[in-house]
Amino acid sequence: EAPAPLKVMISGAPASGKGTQCRMIADKYGLVHISTGDLLRAEVSSGTEIGKKAKEYMDNGKLVPDQVVTDMVVSRLSQPDVQERGWLLDGYPRSFSQAQSLESFNIRPDIFIVLQVPDDIVIDRCVGRRLDPVTGKIYHVKNFPSESEEVSSRLITRSDDTFEKVKSRLETYKQNFETILPTYSDLLNQINGNRQVEVVFQEIDSLLQKICENTSANKLTK
Ligand code: AP5
C-alpha cells in the first residue's frame, strides 16, 4: 500500500517566495498546488461574483472575507486529485478563523513552513516581480529576468505590486500571522527565505524527505 500523500502548508510575507518554492515542490512531489492568491486572481479576471467581491480587498492589500476564501479552499481540497496526490496550501490559512475552519474539518498538514525575509527585501521583490500569463512562471526584473524577447514582451505586473500596496499587504500579514501560529506550533519550521532559490528549496526538500521516510517507516512497522 502506498504511503498517505503529503500535506504541506507554506506561509510567509508577500513575495517571501511562496509561489516560487511551491512550483518546485509541486514538480518534485506531484502535490496539488493550491494558491488562494492565484484562485482569487482567476475569479477576478473571469469577472465572477467571487471575483467582484474579492477585487476591492485585494487592491487595498486587505484580506478577502474569510467565508469567501474558505469555501473556495475547502471545495478544492475535496476534489479527487487532491485526495490522491496530496496538497500544498499556499497563502491559506491567513487568519485565526481560517485556521479554525480547517481544524473543524479535521484538515491538518504534515508540516507548516514559514519563509522569513526582511521587509526591505520583500518590497524590492514585489516591485520587480513580473508574471508570464502563458506559463504562469514568476520572474523578477533584476533577480530573474526572462529568457527571451518573446517572453519579456508578454510579461505582466500584478496590480497589487506597487510600493504603497505592498506596504499595506505587509502590514496585513504582520497583523494576522501571529494569530495562526498556535494552531500549528508543533509542525512549525521557519526557513530563511533570503537566500538563493535553490538553497531555500534544498532545505524544504530535505524536510519533506524526512516526513516521507517517517511515514513509510511507520507503515512498515504496522
Ligand atoms: P497572494 O497572491 O497570496 O500574495 P502574497 O501573499 O502577497 O504573496 P505573493 O504572491 O506576493 O508572493 P510569494 O511569496 O508567492 O512570492 P513569489 O514566489 O511570487 O495574495 C494576494 C491577495 O489575495 C492578498 O493580498 C489578499 O487580498 C488575497 N488573499 C490571498 N489569500 C488569502 C486568504 N487566505 N485570505 C484572505 N485573502 C487572501 O516571489 C516574489 C518575487 O521575488 C518574484 O519576482 C520572484 O522571482 C522573486 N524571488 C522569489 N524567491 C527569491 C529568492 N530566493 N531570491 C531572490 N528573489 C526571489
TrEMBL record:
Record field: transmembrane: none
Protein family per UniProt: Belongs to the adenylate kinase family.
Highest taxon above the source species: Eukaryota
Upper lineage: Eukaryota, Viridiplantae, Streptophyta, Embryophyta, Tracheophyta
Location relative to the cell: Plastid, Chloroplast
Signal peptide: none
Protein's name in the database: adenylate kinase
Region of the whole protein represented: 77 to 298 of 595
